[in-house]
Amino acid sequence: DAGVIQSPRHEVTEMGQEVTLRCKPISGHDYLFWYRQTMMRGLELLIYFNNNVPIDDSGMPEDRFSAKMPNASFSTLKIQPSEPRDSAVYFCASSQSNSGIVTQYFGPGTRLLVL
Amino acid sequence: SQQGEEDPQALSIQEGENATMNCSYKTSINNLQWYRQNSGRGLVHLILIRSNEREKHSGRLRVTLDTSKKSSSLLITASRAADTASYFCATPTGANSKLTFGKGITLSVRP
What we know:
Chain A contains no helices and 11 strands. Chain A is mostly beta strands.
């Protein structure tokens, strides 16, 4: 069974451009999480969905960030306009709730560099 | 503030030695998890210990949990160069559906 799939794996863009990151969760998982990882701030939860519905977006840094999950097998994280401080590795993770305990499966990440 | 905080921040050992990593957390939990991240990769779940368990083993991994001290330790026995990675503890927050990760411990195992 394929794990969490993310695309692109690497993205280099210029400040002001729109960036769209994509994620396909593991089939059957009902939770999807978006994280950002930097050396300075570590791993930060940006937003998570349950059954395609956003539950908590308190980690989204500002209005330039938006996330959608139109169906159970696809989610996007969009940054518009992008800024150099958005440079980071963005991870998508999915999980299946099991008696209230959630173990997360991470994708390989998208390494974003904004020039 | 971080729910889970690991120490030390970095650990360097010789192949064959044991590596012990610690995690402290602040609020009551029903489970604690450890993850590993190899360079350039996503995190991988290693082991989960429930609040009613004191110790758990998985291969060369041994995890302990002391709920009275709000702390956990991860022991890797007979370390190998392939164990070189960052290790994170994670604890549930909110409605238990999300996890808060520590900043991680960088483990280097010298061949």
